[in-house]
Amino acid sequence: MGNSYAGQLKTTRFEEVLHNSIEASLRSNNLVPRPIFSQLYLEAEQQLAALEGGSRVDEEEEEEGEGGLEPNSLPNPFQLHPPPEGCCTTDGFCQAGKDLRLVSISNEPIDVPAGFLLVGAKSPSLPDHLLVCAVDKRFLPDDNGHNALLGFSGNCVGCGKKGFCYFTEFSNHINLKLTTQPKKQKHLKYYLVRNAQGTLTKGSLICWKGSEFRSRQISASTCSGSLFPALESAGPLASFPSEPTPGMNPGILMGAQQAGPASDHPSLSAAMGPAVFNGKDSPKRQQLAKNNLLTLPRPSALGILSNSGPPKKRHKGWSPESPSAPDGGYPQGGGNRAKYESAGMSCMPQVGLVGPASVTFPVVTSGEPVSVPDNLLKICKAKPVIFKGHGNFPYLCGNLNDVVVSPLLYTCYQNSQSISRAYEQYGTSTIQPISEEMQLLLTVYYLVQLAADQVPLMEDLEQIFLRSWRESHLTEIRQYQQAPPQPFPPVPSPAAPVTSAQLPWLASLAASSCNDSVHVIECAYSLSEGLSEMFRLLVEGKLSKTNYVVIICACRSAAIDSCIAVTGKYQARILSESLLTPAEYQKEVNYELVTGKVDSLGAFFSTLCPEGDIDILLDKFHQENQGHISSSLTASSVTKAASLEVSGTPVCTRVLLELGLEKEHMTKQRVEQYVLKLDAEAQTKFKAFLQNSFQNPHTLFVLIHDHAHWDLVSSAVHNLYSQSDPSVGLVDRLLNCREVKEAPNIVTLHVTSFPYALQTQHTLISPYNEIHWPASCSNGVELYHENKKYFGLSEFIESTLSGHSLPLLRYDSSFEAMVTALGKRFPRLHSAVIRTFVLVQHYAAALMAVSGLPQMKNYTSVETLEITQNLLNSPKQCPCGHGLMVLLRVPCSPLAAVAYERLAHVRARLALEEHFEIILGSPSSGVTVGKHFVKQLRMWQNIEDVEWRPQTYLELEGLPCILIFSGMDPHGESLPRSLRYCDLRLINSSCLVRTALEQELGLAAYFVSNEVPLEKGTRNEASESDAEKLSSTDNEDEELGTEGSTLEKRSPVKRERSRSHDSASSSLSSKASGSALGGESLAQPTGLPQGEHARSPQPCSPSEEGRAPGEKQRPRASQGPPSAISRHSPGLTPQPDCSLRTGQRSIQVSITSSCSQLSSSSSGLSSSPVAPAAGTLVLQASQCSLTKACRQPPIVFLPKLVYDMVVSTDSSGLPKAASLLPSPSVMWASSFRPLLSKTMTSTEQSLYYRQWTVPRPSHMDYGNRAEGRVDGFHPRRLLLSGPPQIGKTGAYLQFLSVLSRMLVRLTEVDVYDEEEININLREESDWHYLQLSDPWPDLELFNKLSFDYIIHDPKYEDASLICSHHQSIKSEDRGMSRKPEDFYVRRQTARMRLSKYAAYNTYHHCEQCHQYMGFHPRYQLYESTLHAFAFSYSMLGEEIQLHFVIPKSKEHHFVFSRPGGQLESMRLPLVTDKSHEYIKSPTFTPTTGRHEHGLFNLYHAMDGASHLHVLVVKEYEMAIYKKYWPNHIMLVLPSIFNSAGVGAAHFLIKELSYHNLELERNRQEELGIKPQDIWPFIVISDDSCVMWNVVDVDCAGERSREFSWSERNVSLKHIMQHIEASPNITHYALLGLRKWSSKTRASEVREPFARCHVHDFIILNVDLTQNVQYNRNRFMCDDVDFNLRVHSAGLLLCRFNRFSVMKKQIAVGGHRSFHITSKVSDNSAAVVPAQYICAPDSKHTFLAAPAQLLLEKFLQHHSHRFFPLSLKNCDHPVLSVDCYLNLGSQISVCYVSSRPHSLNISCSDLLFSGLLLYLCDSFVGASFLKKFHFLKGATLCVICQDRSSLRQTVVRLELEDEWQFRLRDEFQTANAKEDRPLFFLTGRHI
């Protein structure tokens, strides 16, 4: 019933272990976690074993070494909870006041539960005492220190309190009074044992692996797993690329990666690896690299030194490297760093929690206040940025607006000084942090190395500090890695440190070589004088060439004071602007626009033009050309334009239909109820959603949170400022409310391309619930059509490296130069304003130049000119006027409006209104498209509806336009394939966070296709992307990548865009982030619902090369409401065919040449045009631009700063952008972290971020760890991540439909549905049971019924027919038999819905049967005990030894001897018991190979009634069954039956049950109960019985022929209690049920009872059948054989026809587990049944199978060789004595019993065609056989155990009198002698 193993062992302890294991894997040195179940035990690690170099340290010393904190370290964050009021807090006593000291209670008896051990705990306050504790031994290590379960379980031996699940809780209870984090490894010290006198004494030490590890070193051979590998394994240089740091402001822009000249100090030069400077190599650094021989290899991504404590104790900020809270991510300047928490959320109020604005930082100040000069900004042309460094910082006063003060450098210094705490676990304080002097000196070296166009980056600086510290302390680090620490390690002698007196001199020396770029000022008394000096020099203009001023005050003996001022105009502007939050940035820009500060900029532009103001030139041009150019549209037409409608409709239309939630013709309103936009009505709608989930607890609700990276603000922030903006924290208030978290039927799926903010230490999402799509491992299945590959960020970067064509990523150097120049001219204007005005001016000039004013070419850039030329020329080269889209990204909305107005004005003056459209798009407003262009779009897409308006960006396909796209976040909008240029030159510095940067570049992501034939001059195809490399840090699947050099040989690419609902529906909506169901690219291409449009632009011209055979002009689209547009996109399944087929609703078109047919917005994977030839700027003539645009993704223009960031890589090839802080709402947990690696998969990246990032206080996950949850993960949270435009919306909608089908499938089961066989051969009885309404059989009437020998069970369709004297059978009555191998394959089944009374397998979990399955809170251990049970059996001649596995919870079903606890018997009820609370008959279920799939969970089937259920298993399967069914009783067969069949199980069940009946009679007789009153019945049930039914019959009259009936499902309890209540039940030997079939006829249920064969589910009277045994050797048909024996013994078999059992089709285990193979050869070829027997003593290949199985299989398929006369001869059957063997469907048998007084059919008038004697016993004699008559030529087959008994049988039965034998007629089964073959003798009747 499903195949998920999730949640099979849901106990509190298991969940704890599970989540601890998950966290352990997150914090371990292994990147990829091991499977959960293998992690439950901490396996021995060879790596650690190899490290055991030295002797073990004494445990006491080790404890002291880690016990106290160093004086300079911060206090441990572990907070001891105050004890409950009134409890005992005395040392040595528990909180209940009971003494726990070993000396006090060593002689007292202590109750130790099974599985627990007594151990001694050490209390810091009682050093001389041990406290006695009882601890579950599973949580203690073995002698090697391994195999201890994570977590804890213990009891208090004083007060007896049990069930402590956490060592923290337990240590509080026993008053350990710890000041450090409680760890069982640290405080549980000794095993306690009793000596000869019975006194409890201290035993051996507990061998904790962790404590050994702490005292060991890490050798060089393990550098992959350790953070500090030894030098001998040093790899290439530049091993430490830059990495962001904790608390870093994400806006600080990136400069050089490392820097620092070679110097006399080895630690300095070693710290500086060769660096890439924003993509350029520095000559100084190249020289340095040659001298630098000491750099270390880069550590592996998660290679941290393991914290010794168990992982579960490291919650709540217990960071792996240090117990200090500030280093956990919140240093002193944390208030300020939090300024960026609201990045991307401009609505966020800027107040105390978030951080004050620029200057008001709470810094410690000292000395005289320093006055900031007036007009500083005017003089310097930029605001200096002063970074506080070490020591005290003076007050500033005066003109504070012209200076910016930041604590970021101070924070960086503080973080770097915390590095050494990671080594405190070695028990030493000799490793000191890097000195302040060295930090400052390294900073100076770093600044000296920066180029003029670079900006300092704190991440670079922190990595330099880290490397320098490692180098300078390498000796000590290696010392502690190579030998166990001594109590007092020798103090190393490093090189002489830099003193504060030397520092100013060394700093000045370093700065002397940089041409005044860095200026050092030394102060005598305080920083005040240095700052004053700096301001004086600035005002005097003496620092015009200086970018950085370093001020040092080294006068104090204790420490230095320092600060660094950034005075370079370029650097200061970028740094000061990066310190603004997005809200402050927008506010600043608005202010400049509103107050008219930008007017000066406009005035300056007008002076540039040689002919005066550019507007005058435009007006002049307009007047000159007005007569020549007809313009039907004027500017006023914009007001009549169609406004694009925001709609969530298309997202879920298809999936709602598929899920059956809605009918075909849905209104837009009906669909929108499934989409929740985050607007004012969101909370009301969400409450309705929650209410719906509460009212339907059995319905699964899936809450899809799309764009899950957006708006992660905590609702706590909203509560503080709810008046200002109700949308703040809305996502948190909805998704993380208590109702959603606790609702068991709501699953939340977060969907995002940028999951990093949800992958922190506090995340609610388990790493096992993350889906990275598409996965890198696709199991050989192609994720996409072979001609479609995703083209994302890594491919764009790769295009810059190929070198033989224009790259797709570019920057505009002339634009950047002009911006820089204007920045100096207008220092008070924000650079975003300057950049926007310059770019708009460039576009205006370019448009004028292309329109006939060539002199304007000098006032634009080459790049902008290329864009405008192609924009204006593209429609002219296509008969239909198809053109290109240019995306102009202007994040700031007010600036976007300015750009729109300006460009619209220029377009109007140039009379270009009908040449291209200008569209202003933002997430919060509608979009306008002019009527002229709407008309064009309708014509291209063949739309007749005059009211139609485009509703999505995708519907702008082929429209020549400039899309000005505003908004701080792009929201994953999908753009049409005609997008040719992506102009991102205006994205601001806040995008320098990984999420923001990838989000901007994601706008250009495409699916590319390489089906188009090669044309000259086209650009190369960029390589396909590895699915998991899309985050640009991973390159696992090499087969997907191609080298750059091979690219140009390949065909050009066609471009295809995923359909994204966000633009698709919202072109432009304020889809605030996360609709409950909103998306990015719609699901699989399937047929569109009736009435929806399927549009496609018409082709421009006939295809030159001819269309594909099936391709035709698309038919006219049907009319329909405009809201019913369905968009499809690549989902999980690739499209098989991209050509247009008639009649298909989901239309796809191949682009074959110049302007062929285009697919529409409703097509699945659409193709689209692209790019000019490699070097050209203008498109070649006579080519449709759309066709050319299909060949490659768009060209992207970036700011120079961002371009350098994106294309520069570290030594491993990782793009520097990937090392940025992942999201503005998180921060680094520690500066002491490894680096990301290019080889990391998305899963490994997730684990990295989960370990090394923490949410900021404003993040909604910030408080997760404080909730007191052990795990922190939510069981119903999932995360789907994948690159932009990859098709995630399609994926999750597909997931919904699959999930829906799966859930329905989980409630269904395939049951056998076959009608009964041989119905027409029923016994023609003289007597029928005509009391149709009798609920139970009347014994007197039933005795008159004759037994029906015929088998009617359809599973025996291929079995031999049993003849009786009543039959008149014609040979043709039996249908054609199936091939043997077809039988089990082709049995008919029906899919049935599981009822509430079904039996279940191990995959079923629900609250009701939780305890039934073995998860019971009363029992600490779900342990079972093994009990031997022996009884003698005379026929075997030996004692049978069975074993019972009895769980503690089931012991009440058994009787045990008082003193020894020996199993005596299984309790049986009385016949007279009438209780309806339990089932009287014990149920036995024989099973093999079905530990997972067997239906052993009878809780629901029994309707919760008490019952005794015993699984009968083979010895070798006991362990696996016990694992899956811990609360089930098991009867384990002796090992001699390991290869036996079901007959052995039935035999032993019956014999054991009879023996137990005797024992119970004897036991209860002593209690005065009569033996005949003990209940004698047992149930023997198959392991595939799934449901039970009852037929309700409505009889018109007692004997009426007319009656109606209906069938319904009932519980097994109902059926069993009904049968057990039958009067005179003890007179029946065997009771059974009919097998269910949908084809049941009325005649089959008309008579309520039948005397016939019973199968599958039988109720057996072991008392009556005492002398009738199952054949223990049988594999098949043993139930038929037993039924015949019971009947011949004169006993009653009764089948209740009105009850039926359904049997589930189970494809594994059971009879299928027997495979017959050759014993000698390795050949796995199947052995055919003809080879199962051979002549004795022949050289035949022996088979590895039981002899009995070979015999039965051979007779089933080849018995005609022994009985040729019997073939299809029903009138002359084979006489079978005392047994029924299946001789195949072609041969009939007649069963007779040789027992005296047995019931047999009359055979006097029968002539038999054969005789079968199988292992016949002494009852078969010569006289018995002489009663029967045989045809002449009839054949005989005698089967015996060996050849001697074969001969004895022939003699004893005088067979040679009537039968003729030949030597060659002897055979044996093909077994070796040791396998005891069976022997045959055949003969002919004389």
Describe this entry's structure for a reader.
There is one protein chain. By secondary structure, this protein is an alpha/beta fold. The protein is built from 50 helices and 57 strands. The strands form 14 sheets. Strands 35, 36, 39, 40, 41, 42, 43, 44, 45, 46, 47 and 48 form a 12-stranded mixed sheet that branches. Strands 33-53-52-54-55-57-56-50 form an 8-stranded mixed sheet. A 6-stranded parallel sheet has the order 20-28-25-21-24-22.
Q: Determine the strand fraction and express it as a percent band.
A: 15-25%
Shape annotation = elongated
What is the count of helical runs?
A: 50
Q: Identify the quaternary structure here.
A: single chain
Structural class: alpha/beta
Rg is: 43 Å
Brief summary:
The chain is an alpha/beta fold and 1886 residues long. It contains 50 helices and 57 strands. Helices cover 25% and strands 15% of the residues.
Short descriptors:
1886 residues; eight-stranded mixed sheet; alpha/beta; twelve-stranded mixed sheet; 15% strand; 50 helices
Write the layout of secondary structure elements.
Layout: H1 12-27, H2 36-39, H3 46-51, H4 59-67, H5 102-105, E1 116-123, E2 126-136, E3 154-155, H6 167-173, H7 184-187, E4 188-194, E5 200-205, H8 209-214, H9 266-271, E6 276-277, E7 280-281, H10 283-291, H11 334-337, E8 370-372, H12 376-380, E9 385-388, E10 396-398, E11 404-406, H13 408-417, H14 436-449, H15 458-472, H16 474-482, H17 502-511, E12 518-523, H18 527-540, E13 548-553, E14 561-566, H19 569-578, H20 582-594, H21 599-608, H22 614-625, E15 642-643, H23 649-659, H24 668-672, H25 682-695, E16 701-706, H26 715-720, H27 730-735, H28 738-742, E17 746-752, E18 770-772, E19 788-791, H29 793-799, E20 809-811, H30 813-825, H31 831-850, H32 862-873, E21 885-889, H33 893-909, E22 917-921, E23 928-929, H34 931-940, E24 961-965, E25 979-983, H35 994-1001, E26 1006-1009, H36 1044-1047, E27 1054-1056, H37 1061-1065, H38 1185-1188, E28 1195-1198, H39 1200-1207, E29 1226-1228, H40 1242-1252, E30 1253-1255, E31 1277-1281, H41 1288-1306, E32 1308-1312, H42 1339-1344, E33 1361-1362, E34 1389-1393, E35 1424-1433, E36 1438-1447, E37 1454-1456, E38 1463-1466, ...
Parallel strand pairs: 8-10, 9-11, 12-13, 16-17, 17-31, 18-31, 20-28, 21-24, 21-25, 22-24, 25-28, 33-53, 39-40, 39-42, 40-41, 45-48, 52-53, 52-54, 54-55
Antiparallel strand pairs: 1-2, 1-4, 2-3, 4-5, 6-7, 9-14, 13-14, 15-23, 19-26, 26-27, 29-30, 32-34, 35-36, 36-41, 37-38, 42-47, 43-44, 43-48, 45-47, 46-48, 49-51, 50-56, 55-57, 56-57
Helix pairs in contact: 13-15, 14-17, 23-41, 30-31, 31-32, 31-33
